[in-house]
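Section handout 9: paired folding examples.
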Amino acid sequence: MIIKYPLDKDKLKDIKAGDVVEFSGIIYTARDAAHMRIEKMIENGEKLPVDFSDSFIYYAGPTPTKPGNVIGSIGPTTSSRMDKFAYLMPKLNVVGTIGKGPRDEACSKYYIDNKILYFITTGGCGALLAKAVKEAKEIAFLDLGPESIKKLRVENFKMICAIDYHGNNLFNKENK
């Protein structure tokens, strides 16, 4: 399925676990350290440096960018490390997250109950995934280096839906 986001936002409801999606639009990177900082800022009532409304967060920290490239290799981080931050996604109005591997049972249920999509990409394919990145800009928490938040404009970024809006989880045998 091809998604040009936000133009094709209405197509998100049709995505099923197991569907391959070619995504074009904006994706933000954020890993453990960025999630911890966001959590602390929310707890302290501070204004966030990024409006994540209707966005996708990619659990990735790219390698250094080589001359002539837009970004370095940008493979997914193991998503289970972000499970404890699942409760932040509705507060941030995040539409979906992207990473690798299964989410724990509580996180999966939370995503399903709150209509948050979860996509996976293949670890080890970071150089290939980087080819889909057409623009990259470091926009927040620059002191975190590779774990800073980056705004990526991607074209035909390939990913697989692992948790859909219908209660299906690619990693569970009991799907609807």
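Moving on to protein 2 of 2.
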Amino acid sequence: MKIYNIGTATRLLAMKRPDVFVCLDSKNKPALCGAFGIKQSSLTYESYWEDIILQVYKAEWWLNPKPQNNREKQVSNSRAAFLDSLYYEK
């Protein structure tokens, strides 16, 4: 079994596909896990997809139609990665 650093792995995923992935690190993990009802200790690299990403896909703001305006499309295309800034705590 491989052990991955979830912060590094999810940062790389979010850089490559900000439309799908959100970075998960020590600065946003407590708030993000709280918002999604996940125990921080149970969240792993292997459970990240089901615990975070699939819940994002079920959210009402995710299911809304994509905007037509080019500027809004750019923001919408990075909305998963945007969660990092919403839940980031200093």
